[in-house]
């Protein structure tokens, strides 16, 4: 009996040790949903009509209108897009989970909604998370997956909009915002040009671009 108990304990330790290093559906749920439900009040990036928080270790490479490119300390890139038009019109969209994806789930948190979809491309993972009218994409290897998910969820949890400013921006220029070139409610999946985007920034001249990097203030 004692030998059986010892054997069961060893098996339990071995099993738990293996699961720690694996990123499965439960891990992803814990990482993303727990962060999003905290309703972060942190902010260190302010733009016209909205603000959000960029975690330590991430730096701006570029910003164009409502798009932004970030990079973490491990060389992973993050592409951000804020859809102020859909926010202005309070557009609602449903997400249908894709059973063929590595991970796919709708996000619901009070009045906010979105989705998370992860597709495996060769030996890497293409992450797409949309929440509260912002979408973040990243392309990482397996060991970077937990940290990338944490970074993305932290950014998305902090997004705040100034409706009065958005009313001014869009309300007075409504004809200029009729068409959206990029649909955040639709996933790119594996058929994406994001891989080309990664290749482009792999050859990025960081020493030259560093002088133009946007500076952000540390959150309180």
Describe this structure in words.
- It is a single chain.
- The strands form 2 sheets. The protein has a 7-stranded antiparallel β-sheet with strand order 3-4-5-9-8-7-6, with helices on both faces.
- The protein is built from 7 helices and 10 strands.
- The chain is globular and about 45 Å long.
- Helix content is 33%, strand content 26%.
- Helix 2 (25-36) packs parallel to helix 4.
- The protein starts with a helix and ends in an 11-residue tail after the last helix.
- By secondary structure, the protein is an alpha+beta fold.
List keywords for this structure.
disordered N terminus; 220 residues; alpha+beta
Summarize the biggest pleated sheet.
Answer: 7 strands, antiparallel
Proportion of strand residues: 25-35%
Number of distinct beta strands: 10
Secondary structure class reads alpha+beta
Q: Point out poorly predicted stretches.
A: 2-22, 204-215
Mean pLDDT: 77
Give, in order, the helices and strands: HHEEEEEHEEEEHEHHH
Our Rg estimate from Cα atoms comes to: 20 Å
Distance between the termini: 56 Å
Task: Describe the structure in brief.
This protein has helices at 2-20, 25-36, 84-88, 145-158, 163-171, 194-202, 206-209; strands spanning 45-47, 50-52, 59-64, 67-71, 77-82, 103-109, 112-121, 124-131, 134-141, 160-161. The chain is α+β, with helices and mostly antiparallel strands and 220 residues long.
């Amino acid at each position: 009996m004692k030998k059986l108990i010892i054997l069961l304990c060893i098996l339990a330790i071995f099993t738990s040790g293996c699961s720690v290093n694996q990123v499965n559906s439960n891990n992803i749920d814990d990482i993303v949903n727990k962060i999003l439900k905290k309703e972060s009040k942190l902010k260190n990036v302010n733009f016209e009509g909205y603000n959000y928080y960029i975690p330590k270790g991430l730096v701006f490479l570029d910003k164009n209108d409502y798009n932004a490119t970030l990079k973490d300390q491990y060389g992973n890139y993050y592409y951000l897009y804020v859809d102020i038009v859909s926010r202005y019109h309070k557009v609602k969209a449903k997400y249908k989970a894709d059973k063929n994806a590595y991970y796919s789930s709708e996000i619901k948190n009070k009045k906010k909604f979105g989705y998370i979809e992860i597709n495996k491309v060769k030996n890497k993972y293409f992450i797409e998370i949309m929440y509260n009218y912002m979408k973040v994409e990243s392309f990482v290897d397996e060991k970077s997956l937990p940290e990338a998910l944490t970074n993305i969820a932290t950014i998305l949890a902090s997004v705040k909009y100034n409706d009065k400013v958005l009313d001014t921006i869009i309300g007075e220029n409504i004809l200029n915002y009729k068409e959206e070139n990029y649909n955040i409610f639709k996933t790119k999946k594996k058929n994406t040009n994001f891989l080309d985007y990664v290749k482009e920034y792999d050859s990025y001249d960081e020493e030259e671009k560093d002088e133009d990097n946007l500076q952000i203030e540390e959150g309180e």
